[in-house]
């Protein structure tokens, strides 16, 4: 389904299976994972394979993932869509601080523009809503940046269905949501429904269940994966692509072999019995 496209925001066609950059950084998304050249090679191979949506964030590294995207892919091809995130400040490998004050959001966006070596970010996602800053102020800042031409579209990360509905009443700039969602965890199912009803993309994070696919809870995957001649991970990605046309998974990896495996999932076709088995596999349904 690399050939299957979704038109983000009504004007940016992207392949539905993208690539996420978090795994290009070290444990806790802090510092480098390995050799810089290896990370660059993975990014370039993803694009060679037809990936057109690259998802990153300013706090992966911090700053490192965005720099790697620029090093590997700049100048960006017209068909590439680069999404990044701001709104969280890192002070250590396990320290995350939500920051949604207008002046800080603006500064973070400006820093991302510099690291990505671009004058406009295709999709700028608010990594977390700051509970100490009115939502209208946070979204208003992103609307201002959009009016200035520094970002093209706005996305939200880790929101509830109620928060998303409120946000959509405040601005028309929102085109996507990025919440945790995968075969075993569908706690954000209600958010997905809001996205489908409003023509928004849903970029599921932890699309491979953050390692949980190896556990006993996912053992029933083997029957479907075996029929398809695929791995558990490939089958889980194929399920996401079949589950809703709004879902745009962006699995990440620092390994060329794992990248190839993930992207091969786009060619899998699930039949009704496969989908029935996989639909029954979940720990959390929203």
Instruction: Give the beta-strand count.
Output: 13
Number of helices: 10
Beta fraction? 15-25%
Helix content: 25-40%
Structural Rg: 18 Å
The helix-and-strand class reads alpha/beta
What spatial order of strands do you see in the largest sheet? 3-4-5-8-9-10-12
* Sheet with most strands: 7 strands, parallel
Keywords, separated by commas or semicolons:
single chain, 286 residues, seven-stranded parallel beta sheet, two-stranded antiparallel sheet
Question: What is this structure's SSE topology?
Answer:
Blueprint: E1 5-8, E2 12-15, E3 19-20, H1 36-48, E4 53-55, H2 64-73, E5 81-86, E6 88-92, E7 95-98, H3 102-116, E8 121-126, H4 135-147, E9 151-157, H5 161-170, E10 174-178, E11 185-186, H6 189-198, E12 201-202, H7 221-228, H8 232-243, H9 256-264, H10 272-279, E13 284-285
Parallel strand pairs: 3-4, 4-5, 5-8, 8-9, 9-10, 10-12, 11-13
Antiparallel strand pairs: 1-2, 6-7
Give a written overview of the molecule.
The chain has 286 residues and is α/β, with parallel strands linked by helices. It is built from 10 helices and 13 strands. The strands form 4 sheets. Strands 3-4-5-8-9-10-12 form a 7-stranded parallel sheet, covered by helices on one side. α3 runs parallel beside α4 (135-147). The protein is globular, with a radius of gyration of 18 Å. It starts with a strand and ends with a strand. The mean pLDDT is 95.
